[in-house]
């Protein structure tokens, strides 16, 4: 099973999670992102990551209570009743897309927090050592930290989590075929 190898906490994330009674919800997120087999071929850029992302989406969906927004919003949100208040956690899974899309994830989380729709945000990325085995331009923990700094999001309650693969295999994770139907110009 993958492990959480790195974490970066911003804007009082931990205090807010504890104060709002969201600690079990954070534990649920950590269990969902770590409770599956994640083997890679130990060769630079040999593995696709779309399958890993699909596995994570399937796990959030199967757990129940998590809502997904396919495009233009936070990937997964879950709302809980805590006493008389309603609290919400947003989770962005930035596993298989280009690393520059981390900016979009931060925008989604910050806008939702500004509107009061989400109380805290979590971004999940591959750790730096795992990312080197995934497709080129895939996100990684160090890139995510840089995106937070550039977006000046250090003051928002955000948690970056980096997952590390749990072993190697002789077989690479399949890569997604893109640009189907396009032909090369001569």
Describe the structure.
Helices cover 33% and strands 24% of the residues. The chain has six helices and eight strands. The strands form two sheets. The protein has a six-stranded mixed sheet, sandwiched between helices. The radius of gyration is 17 Å and the shape is globular.
Topology summary:
Elements: E1 3-10, H1 13-19, H2 23-34, E2 39-40, H3 50-63, E3 67-68, E4 76-82, E5 85-93, H4 102-115, E6 120-126, H5 128-131, H6 141-150, E7 158-164, E8 167-168
Parallel strand pairs: 2-8, 5-6, 6-7
Antiparallel strand pairs: 1-7, 3-4, 4-5
The portion of residues assigned to helices is 25-40%
Structural class: alpha/beta
Biggest sheet, strands in spatial order? 1-7-6-5-4-3
The low-pLDDT segments are none
Largest sheet: 6 strands, mixed
The SSE string, one letter per element, is EHHEHEEEHEHHEE
The gyration radius over C-alpha positions equals 17 Å
Helical stretch tally: 6
How is the quaternary structure best described? Answer: single chain
Binned strand content: 15-25%
The end-to-end distance, rounded to whole angstroms, is 46 Å
Mean pLDDT: 88
> What spatial form do the alpha-carbon principal axes imply?
globular
Total number of β-strand segments?
8
Summary tags:
single chain; 6 helices; 8 strands; 24% strand
Summarize this structure briefly.
About 35% of the residues lie in helices and about 25% in strands. It has 6 helices and 8 strands. The chain has helices spanning about 15-20, 25-35, 50-65, 100-115, 130, 140-150, and strands spanning about 5-10, 40, 65-70, 75-80, 85-95, 120-125, 160-165, 165-170.
């Amino acid at each position: 099973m993958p492990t959480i190898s790195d974490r970066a906490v911003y804007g009082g994330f931990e205090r807010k999670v504890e104060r709002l009674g969201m600690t079990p919800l954070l534990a649920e997120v950590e269990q969902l992102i770590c409770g599956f087999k994640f083997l890679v071929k130990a060769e630079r850029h040999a593995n696709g990551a779309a399958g890993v992302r699909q596995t994570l989406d399937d796990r959030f969906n199967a757990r129940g209570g998590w809502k997904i927004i396919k495009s233009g919003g936070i990937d997964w949100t879950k709302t809980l009743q805590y006493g008389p208040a309603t609290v919400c956690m947003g989770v962005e899974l930035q596993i298989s897309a280009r690393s520059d899309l981390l900016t979009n994830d931060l925008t989604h989380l910050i806008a939702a927090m500004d509107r009061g729709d989400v109380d805290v945000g979590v971004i999940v990325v591959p750790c730096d050592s795992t990312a080197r085995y995934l497709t080129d331009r895939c996100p990684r923990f160090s890139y995510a930290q840089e995106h937070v700094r550039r977006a000046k999001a250090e003051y928002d309650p955000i948690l970056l989590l980096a997952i590390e693969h749990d072993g190697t295999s002789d077989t690479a994770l399949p890569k997604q075929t893109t640009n189907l139907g396009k032909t090369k110009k001569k």
